[in-house]
Amino acid sequence: MSRIACGALVLAALAALCALALPRGLADLRAFEARMLFKSWETKRRPPAAAESSFAQSRLLEARALDPGQPGYLEDLARLHELRALPREALDYQKKTARLRPSSPYTWANIALLKARLSEPDREFETALRNAALLGPWEPEVQLALA
Hints:
The chain is mostly helical.
């Protein structure tokens, strides 16, 4: 009898874990679709068409709704807005990413790059430069961005 109770308890725990993992898995599938579009745009070296861009944004927003604690989806949204030549919106998403993942030198480097493109050499720009330099001294892409 105790074996049955123990087995039922283990099955219930596994079911609960599956229920917790399901939204995150679905979110990653949605974001994967958008990332594949990014790759196709980069491979073909062309800007996204309006319909493709809208589709990618809807997938990323859906992923974000399913897993709001994942900063990678915000980075992807920022990247999409940058590809669409919307640096202000891209900067807003990068700032949100920095709040969720303040130790990422890539995020801080992206904030600095976007502030430079917007010609805003302010305190926020200096903070982004400093954080990127402190957090990513051995990251070649970060160092190229800072240079």
